[in-house]
Amino acid sequence: MARVAVVGAGLGGLAAAARLAALGHQVTVLEQARQTGGKLGWYARDGHGFDTGPSLVTLPQVYADLFAATGGPLEDAVDLVRLDPAVDYRFPDGSRLLLPGTRAAIAPAVDAALGHGTGAQWTALMQRAAAMWRVTEQPFLRSPLAGAATLARLARRPSDVATVAPWKTLRGLGEEHLAHPALRMLLDRYATYSGSDPRRAPAVLATVPHVEQEYGSWYVRGGLRRLADAVAERAVERGARVRTGCTVERVLVEGGRTSGVRLAGGEVVRADVVVSAGDAAALYADLLPPSGATRGVRRDLARSTPSLSGFVLLLALRGRTPGLAHHTVLFPVDYDAEFDAVFGTGRHRGAPRPVADPTVYVSAPDDPATRPDDDSESWFVLVNAPRHDPAGGVDWDSPGLADRYARQVLDVLAGRGLDVRDRVRWCTVRTPADLERDTRSAGGSIYGTSSNGTRAAFLRPGNAAPVPGLFLVGGSSHPGGGLPLVALSAEIVAGLVGPA
């Protein structure tokens, strides 16, 4: 039996704790916040409730596997509801696509919304994405990343390399398969699932919409925070101890391997294994003592592009919106201008800034748990935003900036047909600076590093650190961000640590 300290009670850390405790290890989870869940948070006020992080579950089998491996079925722990429609897409030319929640219905819906033949275009792209998924799922998502050796294994079959096309961007794949500009815009959106720019992100990210459409988009009744609660409960049932309000100041290294962690205030928690579930950049910059062993990882992190962040409005609204889907996406006229602003590229080279005319994402679950009565709504509104960077980019703590930008986002919503300005009971604003403070992610980067560039996946820190006894889980380590991938990172780490 190993003593295991898990640093951070986000979903990746909780999943790792549950798996390792089920394997017989003595597990202690240490979380700086007063509650568990990390970015899978919950905000409640005056009867209104909001998920403040992810708004849907994809690839639910990953969580079914997690619960089966730790003692009981997923459906006994949470109530998953399949979303149909999955998303209401509204394009700048006035067209609208209510994307069905079942794969067989998608092509006819695309044809009806965007014109004859567009459904066939999308179907052909998803067939290519399905082939990519078959090639990459096991070696890239369910196995430890072995740097160039992973690509070398793939390269033994030239047909697999051609399928994945590592030289091609997501934008390039869309231009190859999709003639309709709305469909290309729809595909570009999936780069933001990894905090990336579709003009630089790899084509293999087309597997994200394939997974959504093949396995469905799901909501957890009562809010997605219930998934984090259920995983935390499972970890405790298996014997893990969860301590909140504990800030880890240092990962201790003695004799060349981890020996535990030191908390704020000086308490030392001894451990044979440390699992870091926080931001990888913060781990290597702040929690680990500098050493030759970690030089390569720190160099790769310095070379990578941080992921985008998000600017959020939590809107408590009077009344109901007719025909409102669970998810609504309102696209701008100039999508490239958004990525230029967020990443400081193109026309905004070197100078990231809030997006003037952003894509707006609205999550409004029709769930009594989110509202005080049936004549109310609770909207989580998100726009892509540059990370908090007072020294070289946007200072989101600058006086007045957050309030001005909140009004601007409400104006954009109104201009695109969802004017709720006279229905607002109250509005809570969360900026990238708030996200950085709450989660210790660098600048509020949602996914750690982005997938911008051909080598981005290989610059992302691996699950086994170069310091023996130290492992990483969560969205800033391999295989990346998003609810399925953070759970897969926990599965990988449990396999690396092994049974007691």
Give a verbal description of the structure.
With 500 residues, the protein is α/β, with parallel strands linked by helices. The protein has three domains: 3-40 and 223-304 and 460-497, FAD/NAD(P)-binding domain (3-Layer(bba) Sandwich); 108-215, no CATH class; 305-442, no CATH class. Helix content is 35%, strand content 20%. It has 17 helices and 20 strands. It has helices at residues 11-22, 61-69, 106-114, 118-141, 148-155, 158-164, 170-177, 181-189, 207-215, 225-237, 280-287, 295-303, 335-343, 401-415, 432-439, 456-459, 483-497, and strands at residues 3-7, 26-31, 42-45, 48-51, 57-58, 80-82, 87-90, 96-99, 217-220, 241-244, 248-254, 257-263, 268-270, 273-276, 309-318, 327-330, 360-363, 376-385, 424-430, 470-472. The strands form five sheets. The chain has a seven-stranded mixed β-sheet. The chain has a five-stranded parallel β-sheet with strand order 10-2-1-14-20, covered by helices on one side. Strands 5-9-6 form a three-stranded antiparallel β-sheet. α3 packs across α4 (118-141). The longest helix is centred in the N-terminal third of the chain and has 24 residues, at 118-141. It is globular and about 65 Å long. The model has no long low-confidence stretch (mean pLDDT 94).
